[in-house]
Specification:
By secondary structure, the chain is an alpha/beta fold. It folds into 4 domains: 115 residues, Rossmann fold; 71 residues; 152 residues, Rossmann fold (3-Layer(aba) Sandwich), CATH 3.40.50.300; 65 residues, Alpha-Beta Plaits (2-Layer Sandwich), CATH 3.30.70. The protein has 14 helices and 13 strands. A 6-stranded mixed β-sheet has the order 6-7-5-8-9-10, sandwiched between helices. The protein starts with 11 loop residues before the first strand and ends with a helix.
Length: 432
Amino acid sequence: MYESMHVGEGERAILVGVSLPHLQRWELEENLSELKQLARTAGVTIVGELIQERRQINPTYFIGSGKVEELSQMVRALNVSSVIFDDDLSPAQVRNLEKATGAKIVDRSLLILDIFAQHARTREAKTQVELAQLQYLLPRLTRQWSHLSRQVGGIGTKGPGETQLETDRRLVRKRIQVLSKALDRIDRQRATRRKRREHVFKAALIGYTNVGKSTLMNLLSGAGVLVENQLFATLDSTVRRVWLDENHQILISDTVGFIRKLPHHLVASFKSTLEEVREADLLLHVVDVAHPAFKQQIATVNQVLDELKVGDKPVLMVFNKIDLIKEKQLIGVLRREYPASVFISATRQIRIGYLKQALVQFIDRHFVEDQVDIPLNLSGLVNRVYELAHVSETAYSDHSVRLRFKASIPDRAKILRMVQQEIHAFKANLRS
């Protein structure tokens, strides 16, 4: 049922963008350029563009009625089957536009969902994509059944079309429940895996889509992550162990790329994948420094991080693709603007040693050694320390066990506070 809404590979399409008062012209052009890239990633051939400047959105068609007529003429003249809008449309706007133009109307969310569906490889990614698809589809089911004899309002609204529609809505809601439960199970499995690796330093690769995160992941870990010059080439979060030198190891994870105007409900659908970002000790923000709009891409990533409530996490800026920079003085400018930054080329393996060195220095600054004495009658605390830290030495005496450990500064504080509270509570119970 959902398949009929997809953008088919090889389809010819027109792109439509609307410039509102708050949007500068260059921003609109950047948005449309990215939309064009998204469409190409989905296998669509772009044969025309239509831009309208408006003070506000037309609730009936999104664009003005005059532009709808112009769009209809373009559809016929260019012989296109789809029209792709750079914004999300309401179900009513989609229906009205399809009726007026005779073409299939695709909004930004649907286009991204199509790309997600093409690139989902694992059970988790496929489950997340299907859930996002059905949540998108549910309010739009009315147009899926336009071929049935359904009437809107008044006598006869309970005809066969309406019955079929309601049946289908129930099926979709039931499937959404099944998928949500499946994702909950996956989340719990992920949480268990994360718990087992809590004492190891964790870094997450973040950044705009197509900036070279997967290339860098492969270079550091030999993970074999798919690398393609496409938006959202990888959806699945991959976690690998990497030795930086003989004394320092980290767990590094690759995450789904960000883009401008990534719909909120799609971010929510990939919350389990993005959980790696929340759990990380350090975020490696990879930037395609050769991209003309890399500053805007940095701002977009920072905005998504704020939405995920992880904007306060430590970040190491990794400016990638330095071999493609035409103005070499840009590196000096960026060094002053981003003192905590590294400049590399993952593809050509340039300055990767500096990146590893920066990671080692960060670990040494933020992971500290300490020791704690735990009474033998509170031995259950030993497992908690092992969960939160890397224990390097265990020494038993007649009354206690001494653990020497290495942990992040927050985890060290948590361990010391936890042990102190348990000892205090134990002594209070003895006195009572």
